[in-house]
Amino acid sequence: MRILRSMLIVSAFLLSPAAQAQEEVDLELVLLADASSSIDNAEVVFQRRGYAAAITHPDVLNAIASGLLGRIAVTYVEWGDSTSHEVVVPWTVIDGPAAATGFARALTATFARNVYGRNAIGSAIRVGLGLLETNDFSGLRRVIDLSGDSAHSFNGPPIVTARAEAIAAGVVINGLAIFCRQDDCSGRPVTYDLEAVFARRIIAGPGSFVVTVDGETSFAEAVRRKLVLEIAVKDGIESGKSVE
Questions:
Q1: Whole-number mean pLDDT of the chain?
Q2: Which of 3, 41, 140, 203 has the least C-beta neighbours within 10 A?
Q3: What is the arithmetic mean of pLDDT over 155-172?
Q4: pLDDT bucket at 232, cuts 50 / 70 / 90
Q5: Which CATH number covers residue 114?
């Protein structure tokens, strides 16, 4: 009886979620998209469509296929203030065109916005880190990709604190600095250089970089270029470097 009980205990442990082997992927990628009060509904939709177009592009699919394992895990999250964030598309393994198309459809099939408030970049980074720490994947690399049209953080933990937590966890933070989206391009910020502040205060880790968006036609292209760099880890991209 004692032996049977011991066997049952061992079996229960082996079948528990904690004991299950995590799925290996080349990259765990959290896409943190700005949906704060400076972003209207049309811009939220525009961003989702831009990411959907990028994730299904042949360049991105080729970058995924070139990896050691040929698959990555991605989730898309919108962020606002320290109490407002939403996982729009949960963790999804992308290992080819079919999976990429499924992710894109999930991102654009319906529109429901539940995120508002003034920028809380530190909170957004912590959300991304939490998603990386609690998922069911084991990635050769882990990356948080934060987009935004401002580098200010008005509430929640300081950026420097959340950034340090990501660095300590071995997570790379890249940035997408958005100067304009559709037809509302108003040029670079007058009071500060958004791109430079992203490079100095937000991105972190080996090979981290900033990609800039400066017009409607360049949004999907910039996202695509950023994804290829993140997935393929191109040589010559130095930490803290802006990518035009």
A1: 86
A2: 3
A3: 97
A4: confident
A5: 3.40.50.410
